[in-house]
Design a protein that fits this description.
Blueprint: H1 2-17, H2 33-41, E1 49-51, H3 57-62, E2 80-82, H4 87-99, E3 103-107, E4 126-130, E5 137-140, E6 145-149, H5 154-164, E7 168-169, H6 180-186, H7 193-196, E8 203-209, E9 215-217, H8 223-229, E10 239-246, E11 248-249, E12 254-262, H9 267-277, E13 285-292, E14 295-302, H10 306-316, E15 328-330, H11 332-341, E16 360-368, H12 374-383, E17 391-396, H13 400-403, E18 419-427, H14 434-447, E19 472-473, E20 476-477, H15 479-490, H16 493-504
Parallel strand pairs: 2-4, 3-4
Antiparallel strand pairs: 1-2, 5-6, 6-10, 7-11, 8-9, 8-10, 12-14, 12-15, 13-14, 13-17, 16-18, 17-18, 19-20
Helix pairs in contact: 2-4, 9-12, 15-16
Length: 522
């Protein structure tokens, strides 16, 4: 019973921890930060601006910090927080920032695992553009499209789509509290990844404020720029204000199941079987694994009814023992809170922005191309009961996500991937972090022989600062330092991203410790 209660917390823990008219700027920077604020208030209402000295500043900064590690005093905090309500405010922030040498970082939902959307590791004078007030969603049922602001949460997008049509959906992240801006910018995948791929490849237009303060859309930006913002990571290429997406059909009924199996009940053998079966199933069926302690929970969503799912499972994965008693039939929209919070969840949970559950967290990721030996899978379950142990989540690829060419979007993890691994660890007392942090480091090292190589790949939305940090020389992030971590997220697409950065932001105005560095073509 205790184990089942712990598993009930897992989706919540994963989600709360788990991730931007032409205006010109003055060429000569004026470093007076008071002048920056004075510039802002000429174009942005003062009620939308928060200086570090403001009594409301700590509350506004903390409201969407999902990882309490980045709330501590040693983190470099912004000078100002700007909470725009329209694109012109963002344009003005960029213009003022360029004029007065204040960089901008951009926060949509606050799930950035390393907190780089609102903190800096090194001393730097910067402001945060917090898109929390920009979360409109507009659905065009006839065209089967929607416009969604970057500050909206995925739950708000899903809710609004379903309100307009129960048989349309969008393939983005599992967790409804994730911000649209960050999720789409880094790729974005969830329970529909095998049917429809990632969020970014289903984006058909954007509105983005570039490093010159110009508001662009697909028709006014270069093809490379449009390619880069859809999966090349947040912030590097401007501030995406809103995204136009294609809405995709789902049946009136989907079926969700959750089947926990302990090691004693054959979890090792089942995971061993799953790593070949999961990526080869029909695209209507997604079965992921959440491994915690001595238990693997097989969590599935099928685009159809229990009546058609049960014979399919008996044919493709009989060892799991799935039967009609495991079925939970519902409209697609209800599967989102069900998977996130469990059977008691409601659609209104998709609209909840008042999350106060903020543990300390550490995350890493891997990609698997060859089956992990069964003996190693058995050792993984030994690791999962060690002191400081976290959770391992395995998402199967194959079908739609693997059919798209690597270069079609910056997200390169396609053909040949069996599954993605996310290592999630969390704790609730700042002083208790040593064991979880050590476990995460050691677990990641243990897995090295069994995952992708040259490079060892990682998912950009599971940002991991241990993969590398940009070095800044002459006020520009260097390509050599960025390549160290960048090729792990983007493989061969990293160079094209850096060349595009060199064209749209050659002075590296939009930057953080893992932003794309500009590569200037000679």
């Amino acid at each position: 019973m205790a184990n089942s209660r712990a598993f009930a917390l897992v989706p919540l823990l994963i989600c709360v921890l788990s991730c931007h008219g032409a205006i010109s700027y003055a060429a000569a920077p004026v470093p007076a930060k008071d002048d920056f604020f004075g510039c802002l208030v000429k174009a942005i209402p003062a009620r939308l601006l928060y200086a570090k000295s403001s009594p409301d500043f700590p509350t506004v900064l903390a409201q969407t910090i999902r990882n309490s590690r980045w709330s501590s005093p040693q983190n470099v905090k912004p000078l100002y927080i700007i909470t725009p309500t329209n694109a012109s405010h963002i344009q003005s922030a960029v213009v003022c920032g360029r004029r007065h040498a204040v960089r901008l970082r951009v926060r949509s939902g606050g799930h950035d695992y390393e907190g780089l959307s609102y903190r800096s590791e090194r001393p730097e004078e910067f402001a945060v553009v917090d898109l929390n007030k920009m979360r409109a969603v507009s659905v065009d049922i006839k065209a089967r499209t929607a416009w969604v602001d970057s500050g909206a949460q995925l739950g708000e997008l899903y809710y609004t789509i379903a309100k307009n049509s129960p048989v349309l959906a969008f393939p983005a992240g599992v967790c409804p509290t994730i911000g649209v801006g960050g999720n789409f910018a880094g790729g974005g995948f969830g329970m529909l990844l095998r049917k429809y791929g990632i969020a970014a490849e289903n984006v058909i237009d954007v509105k983005v404020v570039d490093a010159n303060g110009k508001l662009l859309d697909k028709s006014s930006m270069s093809a490379d720029h449009f390619w880069a913002v859809r999966g090349g990571g947040g912030e590097s290429f401007g501030i995406v204000v809103s995204w136009q997406v294609n809405l995709l059909p789902v049946p009136p009924t989907v079926t969700v199941f959750q089947i926990p199996k302990t090691v004693r009940e054959g979890a090792v053998e089942l995971v061993n079987k799953w790593q070949l079966v999961g990526p080869a199933l029909p695209d209507d069926l997604m079965i992921r694994i959440i491994a915690m302690g001595d238990t693997a929970k097989f969590e599935g969503m099928y685009l159809g009814t229990c009546k058609t799912l049960t014979p399919l499972m008996s044919s493709k994965f009989p060892e799991l023992g799935m039967n009609a008693s495991h079925c939970n039939e519902m409209p697609w929209i209800k599967s989102v809170p069900f998977i996130h919070l469990g059977k008691q969840a409601t659609l209104f949970d998709l609209l909840n922005r008042n999350n106060t559950f903020r543990p300390f967290g550490e995350y890493k990721s891997d990609y698997v191309y060859q089956p992990v030996p069964k003996t190693v899978l058995a050792q993984i379950f030994v690791w999962l009961v060690k002191p400081g142990a976290g959770i391992i989540i395995m998402d199967p690829y194959g079908a739609a996500i693997s059919a798209t060419p690597e270069a079609a979007t910056p997200f390169p993890h396609r053909k040949g991937v069996l599954f993605n691994i996310q290592y999630v660890n969390y704790w609730f007392d700042e002083a208790a972090g040593a064991a979880p942090l050590q476990w995460s480091k050691d677990m990641y090292k243990f897995m090295e022989p069994y995952v992708s190589k040259n490079p060892r790949q990682a998912y950009a939305n599971y940002r991991d600062i241990d993969l590398g940090r940009n070095e800044v020389v002459n006020d520009i992030s260097t390509y050599a330092s960025g390549k160290v971590w960048g090729e792990k997220y983007f493989k061969g697409n990293f160079q094209r991203l850096a060349i595009t950065k060199g064209k749209v932001d050659p002075q590296d105005y939009f930057r953080n410790e893992q932003s794309i560095p500009p590569l200037l073509e000679k």
